Here is the input.
Amino acid sequence: MCTNDIMPHGGDAECGEGTIRRLITDRGFGFIRPTLANGTMRKDLFFHAAQVVGVRYEELREDDIVSYTQEDDPHGRGPIAMGVERIRRAPDARDEAGHPHEPAPGRWPLAAGRAADDEGSVYNW
Here is the structure.
């Protein structure tokens, strides 16, 4: 679980919970949609497979509920999620015929080392 006791990079950090919005499994990263109590929206947070704790990255599914520590990217690319830990698995999303639900199309991998979230923010790594 997320704690404010020790921050890995020594900077300001914020604990939060959210839903895995998108996984790019062949590239080893994903995006988390933060859950906010007051109903305001924040941009999705980028996370890398190396930041997943408690389970393997391959075990995560879209719509899983996770906790994380939000920090500024050390390379200056904006906020990222660190210490991503699954709290609850997503319900099995299937249609009436039993087929897996396909997520709505969005803007995702752009090119090697680049991706974009639903709001069009571009992430480079």
Notes: The chain is about 0% helix and 40% strand. Strands lie at 14-24, 29-34, 45-48, 52-53, 65-72, 79-88, 114-116, 122-124. The chain has one domain: 1-94.
